[in-house]
Amino acid sequence: MAKPNSPELIIEAGRTERQYWQDLWRYRELFYFLAWRDILVRYKQTIIGIAWALIRPLLTMLVFTIVFGNLAKLPSEGAPYPIMVFAGMLPWQFFANALAECSNSLISNSNLISKVYFPRLIIPASAVIVSFVDFMISGIILLGLMAWYNFIPTWRIITLPFFIAIAFAASMGAGLWLASLNVKYRDFRYIVPFIVQFGLYISPVGFSSTIVPEKWRLLYSLNPVVGVIDGFRWAILGGESKIYFPGFLLSLTLVGLILGTGIWYFRKTEKTFADVI
């Protein structure tokens, strides 16, 4: 039987929304530490180390180029097919890696969560940053492909940061949902790989979304990643590449909705993490 005056450990968050967002800034060093730790751990004790960030998308690009470009002879929006594929592969890999990292981020940091208070939003956010580092490294392949094919991008390339921001928002929003749900329902550790695998085939990664019949384009854009990938290709390929603006606006709206509701649900369930985890 516990003594009446025995000390209790109480982990308490900021009492107001304003204090919470201020706490994010106050704990920025923890954010840097978690991101850097995960970057170091990811390829620790591997033979080729960080080169895996280059090999995985490169092999996927080669398979898609052979199947869709050489065998199926699908259109490439006026660019060499490998460049077209990799322009779509970059945002998809970023999104898929972020989902995988975020979904397990709270579970893998359970000891930290149960012992000390800090804004839990830092943990999935740092996981997205780790995926973004892989994204930047994979960009080296795209530069190499452009040099190999002597492909020079147009002025549209200056809009690429805008589409990167959209990809970041989509990854963060979906990641917050999965991170929160995985704490309560551990089934999501099995669901996330299925989502990633299924999403690869229903997203225009290995092919151009222009092959989708016009009457289905808006419905197809209910997949928010479609707008992100089309935006990347429009910015990188230039020339014949076009954005289906009704579908892009729909995807952009869905990304905003996913991010907003993701933050809302994460904040709603955050106070229970230390008890459930």
Count of β-strands: 0
Beta-strand fraction estimate: under 5%
Q: Can you write the helix and strand succession as a string?
A: HHHHHHHHHHHH
**Helix count, DSSP H or I runs of 4 or more residues:** 12
Instruction: Return residue spans where pLDDT drops below 50 for at least 5 consecutive residues.
Output: none
* Overall mean pLDDT: 87
Percent helix, as a range, is over 70%
What summary fits the major beta sheet? none
Write the layout of secondary structure elements.
Layout: H1 17-26, H2 28-42, H3 52-71, H4 81-108, H5 110-113, H6 122-148, H7 160-184, H8 188-202, H9 214-220, H10 224-237, H11 245-270, H12 273-276
Helix pairs in contact: 2-6, 3-4, 3-6, 4-6, 4-7, 4-8, 4-10, 6-7, 7-10, 7-11, 10-11
Describe the structure.
With 277 residues, the chain is mostly helical. It has helices at residues 17-26, 28-42, 52-71, 81-108, 110-113, 122-148, 160-184, 188-202, 214-220, 224-237, 245-270, 273-276. Helix 2 packs across helix 6 (122-148), helix 3 packs across helix 6 (122-148) and helix 4 (81-108) packs parallel to helix 7 (160-184). It starts with 16 loop residues before the first helix and ends with a helix.
Give keywords:
12 helices
Summarize the entry for a quick read.
The chain contains 12 helices and no strands.
